């Protein structure tokens, strides 16, 4: 049986579920501690905003991780989303195109090329 691929996980989900909730840190407390607007932290946790380099540095400093961890999570998320989009587009394009049927003449031409 073919298993379905899980949807990409936004780094804001990881921030919330793996860093904030277990440590009982509110989004407001995090925002205040790293000196950013509360709205920004909320939007990241809701997967509405991305983690940029500055935010990665702030999160890394606060949690004692590297900025690269946060940037890597964001990059992985974006890459997986892009792969899903391209796969869907590729499937749609394949439905729209009637492939060229090779004849013996074109096969011979390719051999001599």
Task: Tell me what you see in this structure.
The chain is mainly alpha-helical and 113 residues long. The protein is built from six helices and no strands. The protein has helices at residues 11-23, 27-34, 38-45, 53-63, 67-96, 104-112. α1 crosses α3 (38-45) and α2 (27-34) crosses α3 (38-45). The two termini are 43 Å apart. The model has no long low-confidence stretch (mean pLDDT 90).
Summarize this structure as a short list of keywords or feature phrases.
single chain, 113 residues, mainly alpha, 434 Repressor (Amino-terminal Domain), 6 helices, 70% helix
Please describe the topology of this protein.
Blueprint: H1 11-23, H2 27-34, H3 38-45, H4 53-63, H5 67-96, H6 104-112
Brief summary of the model shown:
This protein is mainly alpha-helical and 113 residues long. The protein contains 6 helices and no strands.
Question: Helical amount among residues, as a percent range?
Answer: 55-70%
- Based on the coordinates given, report the CATH architecture: Orthogonal Bundle
CATH topology: 434 Repressor (Amino-terminal Domain)
Low-confidence spans: pLDDT under 50, at least 5 residues? none
Q: How many domains?
A: 1
Name of the level-1 CATH class: Mainly Alpha
Q: In angstroms, what separates the terminal alpha carbons?
A: 43 Å
Q: What portion of residues belong to β-strands?
A: under 5%
User: Would you tell me the structural class of the helices and strands?
Assistant: mainly alpha
Cα gyration radius (Å): 23 Å
Overall 3D geometry? elongated
What sequence of helices (H) and strands (E) makes up the elements? HHHHHH
Number of strands: 0
CATH superfamily: lambda repressor-like DNA-binding domains
For the biggest sheet, the summary is:
none
Number of discrete helical segments: 6
- The whole-number mean of residue pLDDT values reads 90
